[in-house]
Amino acid sequence: MGRSPCCSKVGLRRGPWSEKEDALLTDYINRNGEGQWRSLPKNAGLLRCGKSCRLRWMNYLRPGIKRGNIGEDEEDLIVHLHGLLGNRWSLIAGRLPGRTDNEIKNYWNTHIVKKLQSSGIHLRPHSGFPRPPLPPPAKEPPQVKRSKKRQRKSPPEKEDDEQGPPRTVVHRPKPIRISAPAPSLPRLNSWDSYPSVGSSDAD
């Protein structure tokens, strides 16, 4: 149920790009714009994978990419941003105009990590955040035993100035339930309330 591969990779070229391939890719993107990377190789006449075309354009051929070595100011900024953002290379590249996320990631792994480790800064696993080396463990001073019984602290008394005028206290009586026996009523049989059968009034 996953996403289908971008191409069959059968009969496609691998390895370094030639100048002719770079020219074909650049001309096609200048005419049609970026995007549609799956169909781009076939439309541009390239025997490359769509992902390979996208990475070649984004990391090497795109106009505005800054060439040359990374300077000390950029390196300091990379270390600072990596301490804040971690391995989020695209966000770091957004703060360094002209540099790609791939270039910054490669520079971090090949140059900066070795430089930090040689200066005694160890990197945390997984996150890569620099941290200072741990100091040697110091001996703890002996702890003073305290008595188990703790005296309860009485609440501090309020001063007369803070109390203000005296308050009037109203006491309400508590409700009391009175349980008196219910008056007993004479029980009547159902036949007593009716005149007897066959009897008639003398009047």
From TrEMBL:
Residues 9-61, 62-116 form the HTH myb-type domain. GO terms for cellular component: nucleus. Residues 190-203 have a biased composition (Polar residues). Residues 122-203 are annotated as: Disordered. Residues 130-140 have a biased composition (Pro residues). PROSITE patterns: HTH_MYB, MYB_LIKE. CDD domains: SANT (cd00167). One of its GO terms (molecular function) is DNA binding. This is Myb transcription factor. It comes from Genlisea aurea.
